[in-house]
Each structure stands twice: as C-alpha cells, then as structure tokens.
Amino acid sequence: MKIKYLGTATAERVPAIFCTCEVCAFARKEKGKEIRTQMQTWVDDGQLLIDFTADSYLHQLQHQIDFNQVEHLLLTHWHGDHFYGEDLALRMSGYAQNLPNVLHVYGSPFVKEFYDRAFELEGRFDERRLLYHTLTPYEETTIGSYRVCPIPAQHGHFEADCLSYAIQNLSDGKCLFYGHDTGVPKEADLSFLAQHHWLFDCVSLDCTGQERASSDPVHMSLKENLALIAHMRQLGLIHDQTQFIASHFSHNGGMNFAQMCTLSEKNAIVTSYDGMEVVF
Length: 280
Hints:
By secondary structure, this protein is of the alpha/beta class. The protein is built from seven helices and 14 strands.
C-alpha cells in the first residue's frame, strides 16, 4: 500500500494567507517543505482519494496527477479545506468532456447536505458523472479494492458528522488508520476496532497542536499522538513494524518543518510534508 500526501496543512495553510507570524514569515522565505497546502491524500496511485479540498486543482498541477483516474473519493468531513463541493461540481457535463468513469463519493449523511448544496447552486445533478454513497459509522463496506470502516471523528458537531477511517487494501492486506481533523478517538471506538481485528501497518494522525501538551478538543498534539499510539499498542491495533506519521499542521502550532522533524523523530514518528510518499 502506498500513500502520497498531496497537502499536509490545516485550512489556513502555511504560510497562512493573512498571517505574519514567525512560522509564516519563515515559510515565505525558505519555501520548499515549509510550504503546506490543505490536507489531501492520494492512495495507491489514485485507486482511492481522501478528501477534495479547495487546493485540489493546485495539487493536480503540483504533483502531475490526474483526478480522472480516481473512481473512489472518501470524504472525512464537511469543512471547506476537506470538501470543496463547488469544484467537484465542475465534473458535471457542460463543464468537463470525455470523462472515462463515474466518480463514486463516500461520506457521512451530514456531508451529503453540503454535497447536495454544491449541485443545487448549479441547478442540477448528474449521477452519470458523480454518485454519492452514504456511510454509516461502524459499518464496514467495500470500496473498490478496499475494506473501509468509518469511525466517528472528534470534530465538527461530535455527532458522527466527521469521520476517521480504517482502510485495508484487499490486494496486499495492508491496513491504514487515517485520523485527521480529529481529537483523540474515544475508547469505545478503539475497542471496536480491536474487537473487529484491525491491525494497522500505518497510522496517520492529526498533529495540529505540535509540541503543545494538548490541542483543542477537535485536534491532537504530538503528546496526544504518543498517548494514542501507546493505547493502540495495548489494544493490539499496531505491531512492531507499524509506521507512524504526523500531519495536518498549522502555523499556530509554532514550529517549522525542521523543528517538527526534530521533535517527532525522537519519538519514531515521521513528520509529513507536501508530496511525501509512504510505502508499507
């Protein structure tokens, strides 16, 4: 299984569009890995795409990828930095020509309301081009060549409107836990995954708070990542070769890329950057 981080930032990006803080000033000067765009992840060379952000068009140009090869789009939640429906609506006939396939979109019932709104603004729907599938927390489903289990994320309205995902590639058996824009998962949710025999080869976690002791209730810090990893180990959800990755960074965390690397690598966690690929 392979994942590529097209973007690794929170909504305001790094440097943030209107910010003059030290982290943003440093990013504008240094560029390179200091530049972070909104979080989006490309799985197995486009077999699966996680989230469709307002930066999706930029990502397509930066990383020379083709969103038309994607048949399955998994949405974590409804905030515009993870789901920008107005751009997705441009896949309809009249905007795009000669499309090879239907794009299947998956998300919570709450996200569906935002999805519908984007097409209502256009005054039409086109299920020959896009088809939405509603996911129910804890109900496993097969999406393309993946086994997927949605878990309520601690974000948004805390009413399963936002989701984290357990994802298994059925071809090679590898498993990914993807938890971004979420606080620490609930004990019951972790226990559910353990009871259903999930064993993760890669754990990708929100680290908006970076070195803070704790982040706000809807995000995590590195300290909270470490506590979560320790608990996942106790529950048998990870193994000795599991890879751990921190992502979804904010300039408000106060650390640049090199500083975050120094902090995370001491704890065997990789700090992601835009364009980073991970194979497991």
